[in-house]
Design goal:
The protein is mostly helical. It has a single domain, classed as MFS general substrate transporter like domains (Growth Hormone, Chain: A), CATH 1.20.1250. Helix content is 70%, strand content 0%. The chain has 15 helices and no strands. The two termini are 38 Å apart.
Length: 397
Amino acid sequence: MLLPQLGDSTSRWAGVLYVVPTLCTAISAPMWGRFADRFGPKPLLVRAQLGLALAFGLAAVAQDLPTLVVALVAQGVLGGTYSASTAYLASGLEGEPLSRALALMQGSARTALVAAPVLAGLLASVLDVRQLYGLATVLPLAAALFMLRMPAPVGRDTAARPAQGRRLGGQGSSGGRGGTNRGAPHGPISLAGLCAAEAGFVLVTVSTYPYFVPLTHLVAPGLPTWAPGVLFALPHVLYLAFAATALRALRSRPRVALAVAYAAAAASAIVHVVPVLVPGPWAVAWLVAGRLLLGAALAVGLPSLSLLAAEAAPHHAPGKLFGRVEASSKSGAVLAGGAASALAAFAPPALGPAAPLAIPLVAGAVLAAVARRVAAPRGFPQPTPGLPSHNSPVPVS
C-alpha cells in the first residue's frame, strides 16, 4: 500500500524491501551481541528499542523510496530487540527458568503474528500506512522507558559460566538447580548446531507465509474475506495454547521432538498442496488440516529450541550466543524468502502460490532425518576470561 505512494506504482520492489530489515539484522546481530557482553545487556536492549523507534519514525515521514530504504536498513541494523531481550534474560537465568522465559518470548512473537494483521486491518480504514508507522513508534519508546526501570545485571567474569556449565555437564545436564534437559547424555548442543537448528526451523516454517493468502484464494475462492487471516493465524494460536505443556513434556527429549517438528512441517506442506493437485469440495478441510499440522510443528519445535538454547547458555557469553542465534534465524528467513519468491516466479502456472510449499516439504524431510545429529551434545567450550557476563537475577513475569 505504501510503495505506490512513493513512486513504485507496480510495487515491483516489494519482495526486495521485504527482506531488507531481516538481512540487515542477520548481519548486525553478532556485533550487537558482542557489545552486550562488553557493556551489559540492559543498555543494549534500550538501544535496540530506541533504534526501532527511530526506524519507524523515518518510515512515518518517508516521502520517497530512498527514505523508506534507509528506514528499513535502520530497522535491521539498529533494531535487534529479540536477540537483545534473550541475551538480557540469559544473563540472569539458566536451566528451566531460562527455557520458560524463552518460550514466553516466542509466545509474544506469535501473539504479534496473530494480533498485528487484525489491528492493522482495522486501523487501515482510518489511517494511512505512514500514520501506522508513526503510531507503531510509540511501542518501542514505551518498551525503552519500561526497560530503564528494570534491574541491570551485575558483571562478573565469564569464565564462571563455562566452568559452571562443565560441572552441570558432568551431571548429564540434569543435576543441580539449573538442569533443563534431563536426557542430555554428555554435554550441551554446540553453538553451530543450535544455529543450524534455528535456521532450519525458520526455513521450514516461514517460507510459505507471504503466499498462504493467495493459496487460499486459489483453492477456495468462495471463502469470506476474514477466513484467510483466521487460517493464517491458526498455527500460532495452537502454539500459544500448547507451548507451556510441550515445554514440560519435552524437557528430557528436545532432540527427538525437534526431529518430529521438522517432520510435521514437511507433512503440513504435503497436506496444503493436496487441494491444489486434487481440487474439490474438501479444499477448506485440507487447508485446516495443514494449518493444524503446522501448528503442531510450532508447538513442538519452538519449545525444543528453547530447551536446547537454555542447555547451551551456561557455556557461552549470552550476547555472543543469542546474537549468533538471531543472525542464523534471520539468515534462514532471508533464504526462505528468496527461495519462495524464485519458486513462485518460475513454477508452472497451475501451481502458482503453492510452489513454495516445496521448501518445507524437502527441507523438513531432510532436517527431520539429520536433526538428532545436528543437535547432538558436543564438548564444552573453554572459558573466555575478561568478558563480563552481567549475571544477576532477572525478574520474569
